[in-house]
Protein backbone atom coordinates (compact mmCIF):
# COMPACT_ATOMS: atom_id res chain seq x y z
CA UNK A 1 0.00 0.00 0.00
CA UNK A 2 1.33 3.43 -0.94
CA UNK A 3 2.21 5.97 1.69
CA UNK A 4 1.14 9.58 1.45
CA UNK A 5 4.62 10.44 0.19
CA UNK A 6 4.35 7.95 -2.67
CA UNK A 7 0.95 8.96 -3.94
CA UNK A 8 0.94 11.12 -7.05
CA UNK A 9 -1.61 13.72 -8.07
CA UNK A 10 -3.40 11.33 -10.37
CA UNK A 11 -4.20 8.71 -7.73
CA UNK A 12 -4.34 10.88 -4.61
CA UNK A 13 -7.30 9.50 -2.70
CA UNK A 14 -9.57 11.46 -0.41
CA UNK A 15 -8.76 8.79 2.19
CA UNK A 16 -5.26 10.19 2.52
CA UNK A 17 -4.80 12.56 5.45
CA UNK A 18 -4.03 15.98 3.99
CA UNK A 19 -1.68 16.90 6.81
CA UNK A 20 0.55 13.94 5.82
CA UNK A 21 1.42 15.66 2.57
CA UNK A 22 4.70 17.55 2.55
CA UNK A 23 4.85 21.01 0.97
CA UNK A 24 7.13 19.60 -1.72
CA UNK A 25 4.29 17.37 -2.89
CA UNK A 26 1.82 20.24 -2.84
CA UNK A 27 4.25 22.19 -4.97
CA UNK A 28 4.48 19.45 -7.58
CA UNK A 29 0.73 18.97 -7.59
CA UNK A 30 -0.32 22.60 -7.81
CA UNK A 31 2.60 24.24 -9.58
CA UNK A 32 4.53 25.67 -6.65
CA UNK A 33 8.06 25.82 -5.33
CA UNK A 34 8.35 22.72 -3.19
CA UNK A 35 9.36 23.23 0.43
CA UNK A 36 9.51 27.00 -0.18
CA UNK A 37 5.70 26.86 0.10
CA UNK A 38 6.18 26.34 3.83
CA UNK A 39 6.87 30.00 4.50
CA UNK A 40 6.29 33.52 3.20
CA UNK A 41 9.16 35.97 3.57
CA UNK A 42 8.96 39.70 4.33
CA UNK A 43 11.35 42.61 4.17
CA UNK A 44 13.00 43.40 7.53
CA UNK A 45 10.64 45.32 9.78
CA UNK A 46 7.77 45.07 7.30
CA UNK A 47 4.43 43.29 7.33
CA UNK A 48 3.56 44.31 3.76
CA UNK A 49 3.34 41.61 1.11
CA UNK A 50 5.35 42.43 -1.99
CA UNK A 51 3.33 41.98 -5.17
CA UNK A 52 6.16 40.05 -6.84
CA UNK A 53 6.45 37.57 -3.96
CA UNK A 54 2.93 36.19 -3.69
CA UNK A 55 3.23 33.33 -6.18
CA UNK A 56 3.54 30.72 -3.43
CA UNK A 57 0.41 32.11 -1.76
CA UNK A 58 -1.45 31.67 -5.03
CA UNK A 59 -0.38 28.03 -5.04
CA UNK A 60 -1.63 27.62 -1.48
CA UNK A 61 -4.93 29.24 -2.45
CA UNK A 62 -5.31 26.73 -5.28
CA UNK A 63 -4.43 23.79 -3.02
CA UNK A 64 -6.78 24.87 -0.24
CA UNK A 65 -9.59 25.57 -2.70
CA UNK A 66 -9.32 22.22 -4.46
CA UNK A 67 -8.85 20.28 -1.23
CA UNK A 68 -11.50 21.45 1.26
CA UNK A 69 -10.23 19.01 3.88
CA UNK A 70 -6.90 20.79 4.00
CA UNK A 71 -6.36 23.49 6.63
CA UNK A 72 -3.39 25.80 7.14
CA UNK A 73 -1.76 26.92 10.37
CA UNK A 74 0.18 30.19 10.23
CA UNK A 75 2.91 31.18 12.66
CA UNK A 76 4.25 34.72 12.58
CA UNK A 77 8.00 35.04 12.91
CA UNK A 78 10.59 37.78 13.39
CA UNK A 79 14.31 38.17 13.04
CA UNK A 80 15.44 39.85 16.29
CA UNK A 81 18.51 41.24 14.54
CA UNK A 82 17.29 42.29 11.10
CA UNK A 83 13.89 43.52 12.29
CA UNK A 84 15.34 45.61 15.13
CA UNK A 85 16.49 48.76 13.34
CA UNK A 86 13.39 49.07 11.11
CA UNK A 87 11.19 48.80 14.22
CA UNK A 88 13.31 51.40 15.97
CA UNK A 89 12.89 53.71 12.99
CA UNK A 90 9.12 53.35 13.20
CA UNK A 91 9.23 54.38 16.85
CA UNK A 92 11.61 57.22 16.05
CA UNK A 93 9.22 58.58 13.44
CA UNK A 94 6.34 58.46 15.92
CA UNK A 95 8.38 60.25 18.58
CA UNK A 96 9.62 62.86 16.11
CA UNK A 97 6.20 63.70 14.69
CA UNK A 98 4.87 64.06 18.24
CA UNK A 99 7.31 66.94 18.70
CA UNK A 100 7.18 68.69 15.35
CA UNK A 101 5.12 68.85 12.18
CA UNK A 102 7.97 67.53 10.08
CA UNK A 103 10.10 64.48 10.73
CA UNK A 104 13.48 66.19 10.45
CA UNK A 105 12.45 68.92 12.87
CA UNK A 106 11.18 66.35 15.34
CA UNK A 107 14.41 64.35 15.21
CA UNK A 108 16.38 67.55 15.83
CA UNK A 109 14.28 68.30 18.89
CA UNK A 110 14.80 64.77 20.20
CA UNK A 111 18.50 65.20 19.61
CA UNK A 112 18.64 68.44 21.55
CA UNK A 113 16.23 67.50 24.34
CA UNK A 114 16.93 63.89 25.13
CA UNK A 115 20.24 62.77 23.63
CA UNK A 116 22.90 62.73 26.38
CA UNK A 117 25.14 65.79 26.21
CA UNK A 118 28.37 63.78 25.96
CA UNK A 119 26.96 62.04 22.88
CA UNK A 120 25.93 65.39 21.39
CA UNK A 121 29.39 66.84 22.01
CA UNK A 122 31.08 63.86 20.42
CA UNK A 123 28.83 64.10 17.38
CA UNK A 124 29.38 67.87 17.08
CA UNK A 125 33.13 67.34 17.27
CA UNK A 126 32.92 64.75 14.52
CA UNK A 127 30.96 67.15 12.33
CA UNK A 128 33.52 69.90 12.96
CA UNK A 129 36.35 67.54 12.05
CA UNK A 130 34.87 66.88 8.62
CA UNK A 131 34.78 70.57 7.85
CA UNK A 132 31.29 71.75 8.77
CA UNK A 133 30.02 73.92 11.59
CA UNK A 134 29.75 72.34 14.98
CA UNK A 135 26.38 73.87 15.82
CA UNK A 136 23.74 71.26 16.58
CA UNK A 137 21.45 72.56 13.86
CA UNK A 138 24.14 71.71 11.31
CA UNK A 139 24.43 68.07 12.30
CA UNK A 140 23.13 65.98 9.36
CA UNK A 141 19.81 64.21 9.89
CA UNK A 142 21.37 60.80 9.26
CA UNK A 143 23.94 61.46 12.00
CA UNK A 144 21.23 62.41 14.49
CA UNK A 145 19.19 59.35 13.58
CA UNK A 146 22.21 57.10 14.02
CA UNK A 147 22.93 58.62 17.41
CA UNK A 148 19.37 58.35 18.70
CA UNK A 149 18.28 54.95 17.34
CA UNK A 150 20.32 52.89 19.86
CA UNK A 151 18.44 54.67 22.66
CA UNK A 152 15.06 53.40 21.44
CA UNK A 153 14.09 50.32 23.39
CA UNK A 154 12.02 47.55 21.88
CA UNK A 155 9.86 45.18 23.87
CA UNK A 156 8.69 41.65 23.22
CA UNK A 157 5.30 43.15 22.34
CA UNK A 158 6.88 45.21 19.53
CA UNK A 159 8.19 42.05 17.91
CA UNK A 160 4.98 40.17 18.61
CA UNK A 161 2.88 42.87 16.94
CA UNK A 162 5.09 42.69 13.87
CA UNK A 163 4.81 38.89 13.73
CA UNK A 164 1.03 39.01 14.06
CA UNK A 165 0.75 41.80 11.48
CA UNK A 166 2.58 39.55 9.03
CA UNK A 167 0.13 36.75 9.75
CA UNK A 168 -2.80 39.12 9.28
CA UNK A 169 -1.45 40.22 5.92
CA UNK A 170 -1.11 36.66 4.67
CA UNK A 171 -4.55 35.68 5.94
CA UNK A 172 -6.11 38.71 4.23
CA UNK A 173 -4.46 37.70 0.94
CA UNK A 174 -5.57 34.08 1.21
CA UNK A 175 -9.14 35.03 2.08
CA UNK A 176 -9.38 37.70 -0.60
CA UNK A 177 -7.99 35.51 -3.36
CA UNK A 178 -9.36 32.17 -2.22
CA UNK A 179 -12.53 33.07 -0.34
CA UNK A 180 -11.45 30.67 2.40
CA UNK A 181 -13.41 30.27 5.61
CA UNK A 182 -11.88 31.51 8.84
CA UNK A 183 -11.84 28.06 10.41
CA UNK A 184 -9.49 26.79 7.71
CA UNK A 185 -6.79 29.35 8.53
CA UNK A 186 -5.43 28.69 11.99
CA UNK A 187 -3.16 31.12 13.82
CA UNK A 188 -0.47 30.03 16.24
CA UNK A 189 -0.54 32.22 19.37
CA UNK A 190 3.23 32.09 19.84
CA UNK A 191 5.45 33.95 17.37
CA UNK A 192 8.68 32.33 16.25
CA UNK A 193 12.12 33.88 15.90
CA UNK A 194 13.49 32.17 12.82
CA UNK A 195 13.32 34.95 10.25
CA UNK A 196 11.20 37.77 8.85
CA UNK A 197 8.48 35.47 7.63
CA UNK A 198 5.26 33.59 8.25
CA UNK A 199 5.65 29.83 8.62
CA UNK A 200 2.99 27.41 7.39
CA UNK A 201 2.00 23.93 8.49
CA UNK A 202 -0.72 21.72 7.09
CA UNK A 203 -3.52 20.48 9.33
What features would you describe in this structure?
With 203 residues, the chain is of the alpha+beta class. 44% of the residues lie in helices and 9% in strands. The protein has a 4-stranded mixed sheet with strand order 1-4-2-3. The chain is elongated, with a radius of gyration of 24 Å.
Please render the helix and strand layout as text.
Blueprint: H1 23-30, E1 39-41, H2 55-66, E2 72-77, H3 84-97, H4 103-114, H5 117-129, H6 141-148, H7 156-178, E3 185-187, E4 197-202
Helix pairs in contact: 1-2, 2-7, 3-4, 4-6
Outline:
By secondary structure, the chain is α+β, with helices and mostly antiparallel strands.
List keywords for this structure.
203 residues; alpha+beta; 7 helices; disordered N terminus
Query: What is the average per-residue confidence, as pLDDT, rounded to a whole number?
Result: 79
The secondary-structure class comes to alpha+beta
Number of helices in the DSSP assignment: 7
Number of strands: 4
Q: What are the secondary-structure elements, in order, as H or E?
A: HEHEHHHHHEE
Largest sheet: 4 strands, mixed
Unreliable residue runs: 1-20, 127-134
Strand order within the widest beta sheet: 1-4-2-3
| Helix fraction bin | 40-55%
Proportion of beta-strand residues: 5-15%
Amino acid sequence: QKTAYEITYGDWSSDVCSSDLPFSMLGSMFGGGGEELSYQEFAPGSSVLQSNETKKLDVLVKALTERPGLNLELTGSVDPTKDREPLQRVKLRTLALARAKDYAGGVRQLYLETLPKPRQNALNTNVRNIGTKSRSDEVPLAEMEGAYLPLIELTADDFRRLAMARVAGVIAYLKTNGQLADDRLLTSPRPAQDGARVNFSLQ
